[in-house]
Write a structure and sequence with these properties.
heterodimer, A: 717 residues, alpha+beta, 7-stranded mixed beta sheet, 5-stranded mixed beta sheet, 28 strands, globular, disordered N terminus, B: 157 residues, Ubiquitin-like (UB roll), DNA polymerase, domain 1, 2 domains, 37% helix, oxidoreductase (chain B), iron-sulfur (chain B), metal-binding (chain B), iron (chain B), (2Fe-2S)-binding protein (chain B)
């Protein structure tokens, strides 16, 4: 029998417990303790603050369980899915679980980030271990009470039973459990015994959303807070020359005006007055660096593609030789514009900077990095800064950058007041950090009917593809294969945008494969399958996609979409891609209505391993596909003299319901560990549609947004 | 600044605001009714949709001075206990991703199904096309509008 002693002062560093004033216990877990092994145990558990840990389970005397979700919620569903992982192993009924957003833990946490579709993938093991450890502690406490071997005890949805027929609720043993040794080597459930993982669990905030309760950063307010609106340079490359704040100060409701750097903040008693005050500012702008134009960018990027100044990201075999010996060479150029993120909730942040503390509240995908940057900016100790994350009205990568939180902190520091900074849509669309404009030139060498060489060149504004992206499919499938990148340094700020790089790279490559199949006179799906055969059994460790899993999603998409068997008048386009650890294949169905191509349906087949929450997962798939189509079709941010030429939805087009296809989602059944879904269904969507439009109209779409090319042709949207 | 009295969700509320202040900001900043969302400020996205005398209206374009004699309903006042067919349907279908635009979507949909309890797909799509969902949860919004219309229709018969 396992010996259980009471009380024990021994505490493993990754877990601490604390009795709650209102009854029950709080159990804190440091999920990533392997990365930070030396967290000293608290000497006095009453002093514990839940900010010390990054996963928390609160169990009340009545058995109700509160789970604090560690990662920021941007609409990707982790606030529901991450606590599901804990609840599964804790073995509690989901109806008895409440979820709260955990705050930032700057000391112990390693990845409190919403980005890269990684929350579920990286939380899979540690979050389940958290739940399993807590469950074992509760069992041990009950076993001590009963004087039985813990091995004779079982749990079922928050109730512990033993072989003698006794039973105790978790709430009845929490206090004792909190005093026990922390058990080790806890075995996790066999996936076939899952009761919560794999079930359809509604969004935990749905009741608050449908009743309009305060949830988002822009909703946050507290006593004494004032509202801030900021005027920024109207163009990249401009700075303030002269300014006059008199008229702004006279606007009713305006309280103060502060210049900071090349920006001017207007503080007011409400958001509207702050925005009106900003409009009344009189500023003369001077050219600081250079004023750039989209036309120039296009020429510069094309010159780069045709030049020789590249960095090689991957080179297999001898591409040059393959092209010299080729019977046929196909070469295509694909072009994409800048894209703003356009989260529906414009950027905003609350900051209260005092001599003692810097308190930040708002929507942020990277709370830790932002807290660090705010501390640096204001020359303060990192521990002076706290961040509370609100639910976010979209992220898409924009909220990885804490520029708006830094602005809020700087304004509060000057004004010596708690402030809430709110961007207007125009501020949001023109303040920068965009998906950079990128062009690809892809060339293929064909010899004796076979694909013998593949050369992809990238020319991008400011930043090139990174990491393992050059090793995604078709890397490994073609003997002579090379990826070269080049960039142009611009003063327009760029950053990650949902599925960075692959959001356009997948369009270019999956469109190119269609052209390749046409040229080689082979079946377009079979071409991909044949290439995948060559990757099977690869020993190349840079290749992280699985040819088997990609093959399965492709074959399943063929079956589910009636590929090649659609009725007359329906035209299909195929696309398959791997990114963010997830394998996806999509088939778009296009029909012509009044000579206009209309995307009616997209079949999307996804292998993301175990699907933690199918209800949320399907929502991500549907949204990712439609978002991908919308931006491929309409997204276009152009610049003239450094100024973004679109600043609001009157001239910047986002996809709307009447333009959205029905998305039919199929998940590959799997017992593999789950991967993320926030991004990977977006990249293949553009090519699936472009390939279908080619089939329907004969028009090959080479650049985004499609609408530009379609408007110039006979087929009109 | 003048004081305006507004009838919001059955209550009369006063605000001291500039006469051009949009009802959106009066609701959010002065009445603490933050369910109505700011998206674009120019009536293009629909996030700020409320009902004015029962009609779906963009609150970002409605000055407070023009709204004094009207019955305003916001998402907070759509029903008691989240019992409006639209709210029930939104929950049943589990519509939201980020959820930010949903109040506006729901207010547009609620006004729409009141006058058309048997809408077809293309009527739903047209009626909802003024509301942007950046997460593109459009398939679910469409389903939820249809479901809500069915619920409303059944409750009438």
């Amino acid at each position: 029998m396992e010996k259980v002693t009471i009380p024990s002062l021994s505490r493993r560093s990754f877990i601490r417990t604390s009795a709650l004033a209102g009854g029950g216990i709080l159990i804190g877990f440091n999920l990533f303790q392997s990365c930070k092994p030396k967290v000293a145990p608290a000497t006095d558990i009453s002093q514990l603050n839940y900010n010390d840990f990054n996963a928390f389970i609160k169990i009340a005397d009545n058995g109700m369980v509160t789970i604090f979700s560690p990662n920021p919620e941007i609409g990707q569903g982790v606030k529901t899915a991450m606590p599901m992982l804990i609840a599964e192993e804790l073995d509690v009924a989901w109806k008895n679980v409440q979820v709260s957003q955990g705050a930032l833990d700057t000391k112990n946490y390693t990845r409190q980030v919403a980005g890269g579709s990684q929350s579920i993938r990286q939380g899979w093991e540690p979050l389940r271990q958290t739940g399993a450890t807590a469950r074992q502690m509760l069992i041990n406490a009950a076993a001590v009470k009963w004087g039985v071997d813990p091995a004779q005890c079982k749990t079922n949805e928050g109730i512990i039973t033993n072989t003698n027929g006794d039973s105790l609720g978790y709430g009845e043993v929490v206090k004792e459990a909190a005093m026990l040794e922390i058990p080790e080597n806890i075995e996790l459930k066999d996936p076939k015994n899952f009761k919560i993982i794999g079930k359809e669990v509604p969004n935990v905030d749905v009741d608050k959303i449908i009743t309009g309760q305060s949830l988002y950063g822009i909703d946050y307010k507290e006593e004494g807070m004032v509202y801030a609106s900021v005027l920024r340079p109207p163009a990249f490359g401009k700075k303030i020359k002269d300014f006059d704040t008199d008229a702004a100060k006279k606007v009713s409701g305006v309280l103060a005006v502060h210049k900071f750097g090349d920006k001017i903040a207007v503080l007011a008693k409400d958001t509207w007055s702050a925005m009106q005050g900003k409009k009344a500012l009189k500023v003369t702008w001077a050219v600081d660096t250079k004023l750039e134009n989209t036309e120039d960018h296009d020429k510069i990027l094309l010159n780069l593609l045709n030049g020789k100044d590249f960095e090689t990201m991957r080179a297999d075999g001898d591409v040059k030789k393959a092209f010299t010996n080729a019977d046929t060479i196909i070469e295509r150029v694909y072009e994409s514009p800048f894209l703003p993120h356009n989260c529906m909730e414009p950027m905003n942040f609350f900051a209260d900077v005092t001599d003692d503390h810097i308190r930040l509240v708002g929507p942020i995908q990277t709370p830790a990095g932002t807290a660090r940057r705010v501390a640096e900016l204001l020359d303060r100790a990192p521990e002076d800064v706290s961040v509370d994350m609100t639910r976010m009205g979209g992220g898409f990568g924009r909220r990885l950058y804490g520029d708006f939180a830094l602005e809020a902190a700087e304004i509060s520091n000057i004004a010596k007041k708690p402030i809430k900074l709110v961007y207007s849509r125009e501020d949001d669309m023109s303040a920068g950090i965009y998906r950079p404009a990128i062009k690809y030139k892809i060339s293929a060498a064909i010899k004796d009917g076979k694909l013998t060489g593949y050369h992809l060149k990238e020319a991008a504004i400011n930043s090139n593809m990174y990491g393992l992206i050059p090793n995604f499919f078709p890397a490994g499938a073609i003997e002579n294969y090379q990826v070269d990148v080049a960039k142009y340094d611009s003063n327009i700020t760029i950053g990650a945008w949902r599925a960075p790089y692959t959001n356009f790279l997948a369009f270019a490559e999956q469109s190119f494969f269609d052209e390749l199949a046409e040229e080689m006179k082979v079946d377009r799906v079979q071409l991909r399958l044949d290439l995948l055969q060559k990757v099977k059994g690869t020993t190349d460790e840079r290749i992280e996609y699985s040819p088997e899993r990609l093959e399965t999603v492709i074959k399943t998409a063929v079956a589910k979409s009636n590929w090649g068997k659609t009725p007359a008048g329906t035209y299909q386009g195929f696309s398959a891609y791997y990114c963010h650890n997830t394998h996806v294949a999509e088939v778009a169905d296009v029909v012509l209505e009044n000579n206009k191509p209309v995307v009616k349906k997209v079949v999307c087949v996804v292998d993301c391993g175990i699907v933690v929450n199918p209800l949320g997962a399907r929502n991500q798939v549907e949204g990712g596909v439609i978002d991908g189509i919308g931006h491929a079709m309409y997204g276009d941010l152009t610049f003239a003299d450094g100024k973004p030429e679109h600043k609001n939805f009157d001239t910047y087009r986002l996809i709307r319901m009447n333009e959205a296809p029905i998305v039919e989602t199929h998940f590959i059944e799997s017992d593999m560990a789950p991967t993320g879904l926030g991004e990977p269904t977006l990249p293949p969507a553009g090519a699936a549609v472009a390939n279908a439009i080619k089939a329907a109209t004969g028009l090959r779409l080479m650049s985004q947004p499609f609408i530009k090319q379609l408007e110039n042709k006979e087929v009109l949207l | 600044m003048p004081v305006y009295k507004l009838k919001v969700n059955g209550q009369t509320l006063s605000v001291d605001a500039d006469d051009n202040t949009p009802v959106l900001w009066v609701l959010r900043d002065h009445f603490d009714l933050v369910g109505t969302k700011f998206g674009c400020g120019i009536g293009q996205c629909g996030a700020c949709t409320i009902h004015v005398d029962g009609v779906a209206t963009r609150s970002c374009l409605l000055p407070v001075s023009a709204a004094t004699d009207m019955e305003i309903t916001t998402i907070e006042g759509l029903s008691k206990n989240a019992s409006h067919p639209i709210q029930l349907a939104w929950k049943e279908v589990d519509v939201p991703q980020c959820g930010y635009c949903q109040a506006g979507q729901m207010m547009t949909a609620a006004a729409f199904i009141k006058n058309n309890t048997t809408p077809n797909t293309s009527e739903i799509r047209d009626a909802m096309s003024g509301n942007i969902c950046r997460c593109a949860a459009y398939n679910r919004i469409e389903k939820a509008v249809e479901l809500a219309a069915n619920k409303l229709n059944q409750s009438k018969t």
